[in-house]
Known about the structure:
Elements lengths: L4 E12 L2 E12 L3 E6 L5 H8 L7 E6 L2 E3 L4 H6 L2 E4 L11 H6 L10 H15 L14 H14 L4 E5 L7 H16 L3 E5 L3 H7 L2 E6 L2 E7 L5 H9 L28 E11 L5 E11 L2 E6 L6 H9 L6 E6 L2 E2 L5 H7 L1 E4 L3 H5 L6 H5 L10 E2 L2 E2 L1 H14 L16 H13 L5 E5 L7 H16 L3 E6 L2 H7 L2 E6 L2 E7 L5 H8 L5
Parallel strand pairs: 3-8, 3-9, 6-7, 7-8, 13-20, 13-21, 16-19, 19-20
Antiparallel strand pairs: 1-2, 1-4, 4-5, 9-10, 11-12, 11-14, 14-15, 17-18, 21-22
Amino acid sequence: MPQSVVLELKNITKSFPGIIANDHINFDLKKGEIHTLLGENGAGKSTLMNIISGLYPADEGELSINGEKTNFLNPKQAILAGIGMVHQHFMLIKNHTVAENIILGTPQKFHLSIKKIHKEITTISEEYGLFVDPSKKIQNLSVGEQQRVEILKILYRGAQILILDEPTAVLSPQESESLFKILHKMVATGHSVIFISHKMKEVLAISDRITILSKGKVLKTVQRDTTTAEALAKIMMGESKLSSELSKESQSEVDIKIQNSVNQNTVIELKNIYADNKQGHPVLNDISLEIKSGEILGLAGISGNGQSELAKVLGGLLPFKKGEYLFEGKALDKVSVSKMIKLGLGYIPEDRKRFGIAKGLSIANNFLIRDYQNPQFYQNRFLNWQKIYKYARKKMTEFDIRAPSEKTSIGKLSGGNIQKTILSREISRSIKFLLANQPIRGLDVNAAGDIRNLILKAKESGLAVLLISEDLDEILTISDRIAIIYNGQIQQVVPRDQANIEKIGLIMTGIPD
């Protein structure tokens, strides 16, 4: 018996100034299936999902739910129609309980029956294997448990269509496997899932059908059992440019200025570092590690185990209360952002939009954030905008940064294009140490491959690199050594040839090797 269509899009079109984000897109979702959207950054995936979930109205086209045409004016209407979206960055209030987060915004009687609500949540969680304590506060849950709360939240509201945006980005391999089992249970009971991911392995593991988008258009929709990773990459990027996950041939021709020699001297050394967060709680406990020139040290760990705080200590954003921080053998008494930049730090922050760019300024201006005093951009003590715009255009070409012009506000770019701008800015300066915190999070395989190759090229030129990532495939692909962090402590440092996903995944969850 053929599956019925629960969601259908016909000729959906959405434009923003200078960009057609969705160009006459046709897409459908069947009852009881997982339909994956695959495409590079800027392909139009997020815009399309925002239209389906009621955040944006379409300029043209039709949207139908169970055969009935509709037009959502806001997210509430989409929720009432049975659509729920789990965003990559969770929308939870951390100092509230699981139950409070789940019922927030739902119609309730004047007198709440907490016992009844807890029972309802427990019933849903047991049905789908979404085990979580309704009375626990969000801040006391693991990342995997928080994701379960997000799914419970939309199921509690009666959602039959679920949209999951990069759901495994912050999960360990074991948590990802658990999520896939939950999704299979859900589709078995008649739910339908739109799954967004840039990881080929999980796309092929979880999908029934796969739709490939590029530059706002649908390239093709294929059945999972009739395709391969190589075939998907060919559709996405053409026969001549395969993803670097499948081929090592794609290299970016960018001039990277590195001060280090190829000799492996120690650039960064931490000895017995302790640090507290802003609330005064210990977050780093006796951290010791070293990073040499010409190597990539990968830092693996589940989100929330001290990676962000370690990056802040290294970048001068968070003071350490005990221990030693040495840069090229010299102990640093006081560490600040400006001091680290002068010493030769290049920094790709975890939250690219909040800390990596000035959203309201142009692309050209963002290239100069670290370099406003560079004499090549001045003439008679005034900024020479002609030279600045020329430099920005050159970098946009080198890094394939897609925008109408160098004068476009950077806040209007896709995540991948923003990340390329940040990376271009950092490695185009003379640096000795690149701190790359989640550099490929949320990027498609093409953009991720370009950035991976640039980091490898920088390493081969003598740069010391710390790669912080929750993507173990990424860590294993390009790291020379891998440090595993759990609960603010380095558990082990292992050479890449002695590491595998299963081993690292267990250590990340606190189980000793």
